[in-house]
Amino acid sequence: MAGTQARRGRPRDASRDRALLDATLAVLTESGYSGLTTGAVAARAGVSTATLYRRWPSKEVMVVDAAAAYAKELTAQPDTGTLEGDLRALLRDKAASLTGNEGGVLRTLIGEAAYSPSLAEALTNAFMVPVRERMEEITQRAVDRGEIPPVEHAELLGDLVIGPMMSKFFLTPLPPNQVDAATAAETADRMLCFLLRAFGHQGHGGEREVAARTIAHFPTTRSESPSPTAAPRGGAPGEDRSADALDE
């Protein structure tokens, strides 16, 4: 019967879409949002601008999709078996997303979002909402394991990850693309003990043990501490000055 079969075109090639989004991020890194054009992205990807417009109606939508595709890679929900392990993984993921070339792109987009409500909403959905949802899942697993008591408004704990991370990597003269992966991971680990404290975590020594383990991994420039047997000022080691007082 005529008309029973709908006309179908070729299905979208997911690998081609990803290549185009990667080209978008590359041009955005080099030229910034204001300097990015569909022509430059098409040239980088080796396609026509018509190919881009068949997928995305505007530059803004294309950029948001590119940023969201990258963010999706950082929103996995690994269950490490402990609250400490889950939080460490989350902190390191966010540190990775806010540094390197991708961090530079994100800082650029955040600046542009001040002038584009739709871009601001898209960035919130792509980068902030997943962290809050991931934090809720981490919290619930920890409660189910008996590591912590139930937490009211657990989604707000996600902001304790987002805020300090953005302050550390974005509100600084050092561009995110000049922060290497090792430094980003070390920064994340340093924040772990404070986040555990916000949860009221007490298992396995709580945040004090975590802090001790974290600090032990990093070199220090402080001078060597005095020997435990060094004499205190005004007396020999272990000297009982109360006896001297009685003799005076």
Explain this structure to me?
This protein is mostly helical. The chain has 11 helices and no strands. Helix 1 crosses helix 4 and helix 5 packs antiparallel against helix 7. The longest helix has 29 residues. It starts with 13 loop residues before the first helix and ends with a helix. The N terminus and C terminus are likely disordered.
Write the layout of secondary structure elements.
Blueprint: H1 14-35, H2 38-45, H3 49-55, H4 59-72, H5 83-97, H6 100-113, H7 117-145, H8 159-169, H9 181-199, H10 206-216, H11 241-247
Helix pairs in contact: 1-2, 1-4, 1-6, 4-7, 5-7, 5-8, 5-9, 6-7, 9-10
Distance between the termini: 119 Å
How many helices in DSSP terms? 11
Name the structural class: mainly alpha
The rounded Rg comes to 26 Å
Q: Identify low-pLDDT runs.
A: 1-10, 204-248
Strand segment count:
0
The overall pLDDT, averaged over residues, is: 77
> How are helices and strands ordered from N to C?
HHHHHHHHHHH
Q: Could you tell me the strand content as a percent range?
A: under 5%
Inertia-based shape: elongated
How would you sum up the major sheet?
none
Quaternary arrangement of the chains shown?
single chain
Q: Helical percent range?
A: 55-70%
